[in-house]
Design brief:
Layout lengths: L3 E6 L3 H13 L3 E7 L3 H10 L3 E2 L3 H6 L5 E4 L3 H13 L3 E4 L7 H14 L3 E3 L7 H12 L5 E10 L18 H16 L4 E9 L6 E10 L2 E9 L4 E8 L3 E5 L9 E7 L2 E8 L4 H11 L4 H23 L3
Parallel strand pairs: 1-2, 1-4, 2-3, 4-5, 5-6, 7-10
Antiparallel strand pairs: 7-11, 8-9, 9-10, 11-12, 12-13, 13-14
Length: 320
Amino acid sequence: MKKINIACWSVGEHAQRNILPAISICYSVELIGLYTRNKVVKNVQSEKYNCKAYIDPQALLADERVDAVYISSPTSEHSAQIKACLLAGKSVLVEKTALANKKEVESFIVLAKEKGCFILEAFMYRFHEQYLTLEKIIRLKRFGEIKKLDCEFGFPHLNSDNIRYSKKLDGGALFDAGAYTLSSLRYLLGEDLSLQFSNVFYDLSYEVDIRGFAVFKKNGIIATSSWGFGLAYSNKIRVWTDTALIEVDRAYSKREEEYDIKVMANGNLLEKIIIPAQNHFVSMLNYFSSCFSDVDKSSACLNDLINQSVFLDKVREWKQ
């Protein structure tokens, strides 16, 4: 497989800790260069990974060697950056939440198709074998018919200067932790879930939403999504069937270590499915690379982008 040349636009803590190391060991992508306004970070990281340090975004976009751009800036910056990448003929891997405005998503999908590009929203968990195994269990009804599906992701408050707490930067728990849980409901049960109720909570101490939940229904299945900041840590998916309770811990954010899926029946451990250690950022990059030679995959990325945007809008705008 031909390696895809990628450049990074914005290099925050997440990119430094997870994405750049993943690119360096990934067989399907090669880091060509990076740009960030922080000159110290730009110089240190470009030297560390032996790649070009672009003087500005225009230089990055003008580099004909670059096939794709990884964007890890705050959500508020994504619109201008994604548009610039597409106009330059570069496909995009962008951190969630990709875009805060559904109309922008629709216009960018049109632009991407015109330019022969695609956009993948970086939900890395869905490329981990733990999630793929759960998806297969559900599809094959291995432990019976699903009656209830619960997805949870929340954690204690971070420092108040974290970008997640900035309204100006389109922060908030819905676009962060909530985006994970809502995406997993879509992936596991389909796009035709019917929203029954949702509530997004605010706190006077913060300028953004800090937690929320949503309840969906489909063919007798109840599905819930819960998320938030300032909560005891929870990172799991729980599937309740007519014969078993399937528990997936560390469902969204994972370290590179062994995990499992526990299947309980009437209080007893029925089965423990061991999932070997895996770097789900590398797996995501490999999938992203494969989309360049697979029209169906690249089209699916664009469809997924609009479907996620619709889901977020429904939850955010729901009124009784």
